[in-house]
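for the recovery benchmark. tokens below, seq after
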């Protein structure tokens, strides 16, 4: 049976099926790839810090990442590059990252729980799009943490090559500091040129 959301994370959408929570990170960024994670958790998984990754500190996310990876029945994280984003658009790139993560899963889920309101059907597996689902279901929250931490680590590595954009701090998002750096230094090969960021 379905759960009713009462303001705390719910352990599952349906207690009879294997559920994979899926979320992405970096969809609105000016630079870098978009990441997606798929996570299957035990029905009784609980961690007091787990929540929508945007509501957590970086330190809390780093605490949660190994706990999720250790406890998950299965998980996978994939990314789609900024070049691919420019070729197929960010929405399709987000779907592709999600599908790639599902392709890597060692266990086939019965149901997919997607954070957000849109998704491209994956094979014959039923899915449910849940707006703000990363603050409702544990599996989606866990996916949000993995996608965010993996992407942040990637942007930290890219920062070592292009430190003028301060990607260690803004992670590629269009902060004032990032936009000002683009005005001074122009864009680089890791920027999403289809976003027309020089006009923003």
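predicted aa per position
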């Amino acid at each position: 049976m379905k759960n009713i959301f009462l303001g705390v994370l719910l352990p599952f959408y349906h207690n009879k099926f294997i559920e994979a929570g899926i979320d992405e990170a970096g969809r609105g960024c000016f630079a870098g790839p978009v990441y997606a994670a798929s996570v299957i958790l035990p029905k009784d998984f609980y961690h007091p810090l787990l929540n929508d990754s945007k509501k957590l500190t970086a330190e809390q996310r780093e605490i949660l990442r190994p706990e999720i990876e250790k406890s998950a029945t299965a998980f996978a994280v994939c990314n789609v590059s900024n070049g691919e984003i420019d070729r197929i658009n960010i929405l399709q790139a987000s779907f592709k990252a999600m599908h790639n993560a599902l392709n890597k899963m060692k266990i086939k889920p019965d149901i997919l729980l997607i954070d957000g309101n849109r998704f491209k059907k994956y094979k014959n597996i039923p899915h449910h799009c849940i707006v703000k689902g990363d603050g409702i279901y544990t599996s989606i929250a866990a996916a949000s943490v993995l996608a965010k931490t993996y992407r942040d680590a990637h942007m930290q590595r890219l920062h070592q090559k292009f430190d003028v954009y301060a990607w260690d701090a803004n992670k590629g998002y269009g902060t004032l500091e990032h936009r000002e750096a683009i005005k001074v230094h122009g864009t680089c090969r890791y920027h999403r040129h289809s976003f027309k960021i020089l006009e923003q």
